[in-house]
Hints:
The chain is of the alpha+beta class. The chain contains 6 helices and 7 strands; from the N terminus they run βαβααααβαββββ. It has a single domain (10-205), classed as Alpha-Beta Complex (Ribonuclease Rh, Chain A). 28% of the residues lie in helices and 20% in strands. Strands 1, 2, 4, 5 and 6 form a 5-stranded antiparallel beta sheet that branches. It has a two-stranded antiparallel sheet with strand order 3-7. A hairpin with a 5-residue loop joins β5 and β6. The termini are far apart.
Amino acid sequence: xxxxxxxxxxxxxxxxxxxxxxxxxxxxxxxxxxxxxxxxxxxxxxxxxxxxxxxxxxxxxxxxxxxxxxxxxxxxxxxxxxxxxxxxxxxxxxxxxxxxxxxxxxxxxxxxxxxxxxxxxxxxxxxxxxxxxxxxxxxxxxxxxxxxxxxxxxxxxxxxxxxxxxxxxxxxxxxxxxxxxxxxxxxxxxxxxxxxxxxxxxxxxxx
Length: 207
Ligand code: 5GP
Ligand code: 5GP
């Protein structure tokens, strides 16, 4: 099929739970904000489960264009494994350059992702259902999805790795209105999971 790379059907807003990665790996996170999900990315997708990526190599990431967003990017979109700038550069070139039909500029892409992230606060929804980080407590993935549905009216997809919460994905149409994800395409969910509390080593002890 010959599709224009910038035409797509919907967005996935992907947030990560850094407590899982950082409990097992050396982790580059600098700040512990407690029960707080961080952004992984906003990814254009096709309804058939595939997606466009790396749509325009000439559209290079330029951090200077994001100066007014820098404080919020550093706190809401940090990398757990690399420099923050490399992470943003990767997300821009892989997914942002495919979103130009909706977000014509790098600044509009990043500022809209931050806006969606603020509007759909995951920890706030989970906390209302008493779903909080705990080393031992086992939750059902369904209970997390239900809690988010109760708060925002749409079902996300809950992703796990090694029976720990890794990411929560929400679906948005191209007007940025959320809708319930079709799990058939983006499953990779698990039945049961823990939400390990985020613990960061003191700065001097980091690898
Ligand atoms: P993983 O294999 O860790 O699930 O995904 C690796 C990378 O593939 C992600 O960082 C993302 O860039 C891309 N990816 C995985 N699944 C999807 C998807 O459903 N939609 C889009 N747009 N990208 C995806
Ligand atoms: P994706 O290709 O799935 O959009 O993004 C995943 C890539 O970004 C991985 O190759 C990983 O090396 C890099 N990366 C840098 N920081 C992070 C982070 O905090 N979380 C995740 N999932 N990937 C990160």
